[in-house]
Amino acid sequence: MPAQPPDKTCASCGRRIEWRKKWARSWDEVKYCGSACRSRKVRPVDEQLSETIQSLLASRAAGATICPSEAARAVAAGSGAGSGAGSDADPEAWRELMEPARRAARRLVEAGEVEITQGGKVVDPSTAKGPIRVRRVR
């Protein structure tokens, strides 16, 4: 029996794609873990979240971490027309960006730029559940 090819990472969500027999003929073309990621792809807001995570980390001390919500809040504040302290923008709009912010962090892990931690320990981004923190690679 031939060896399985190595796992890949989804281009959209950053989770691990495990090899499946049904993909044996097209494994080289597989880029997304499922239909939701295939239809979503990487949107401009996803790129903006990745850049925001990197800039927030760059402005902190070397070992400091951020929560993905910080990037989500920053992008939500910057995307609303006239958003800011006194605007009529929805103050909870950042919540819609939480999962995209987590996806952005997972893609940055795959790129080797950041690590995802829980309780101060590096965790597998594909299986991490609950609150996470993001830090630069040590």
Shape: globular
Whole-number tally of structural domains: 2
The first-level CATH class name of the largest domain: Mainly Alpha
Catalogue the unreliable spans.
81-87
Tell me the Rg in angstroms. 17 Å
| Fraction of residues in H or I helices | 25-40%
CATH superfamily of the largest domain: Winged helix-like DNA-binding domain superfamily/Winged helix DNA-binding domain
**CATH architecture term of the largest domain:** Orthogonal Bundle
Task: Give the ordered list of helices and strands.
Answer: EEHHEHHEEE
> Major sheet: size, sense and barrel closure?
4 strands, antiparallel
Query: What is the typical, i.e. mean, pLDDT?
Result: 88
In total, how many beta strands?
Answer: 6
Q: Write down the CATH topology of the largest domain.
A: Arc Repressor Mutant, subunit A
Strand order across the largest sheet: 3-6-4-5
Query: Strand pairing plus helix content: what structural class?
Result: alpha+beta
Please state roughly what percent of the residues sit in beta strands, choosing from under 5%, 5-15%, 15-25%, 25-35%, 35-45% or over 45%. 5-15%
Distance between the termini: 39 Å
Number of helices: 4
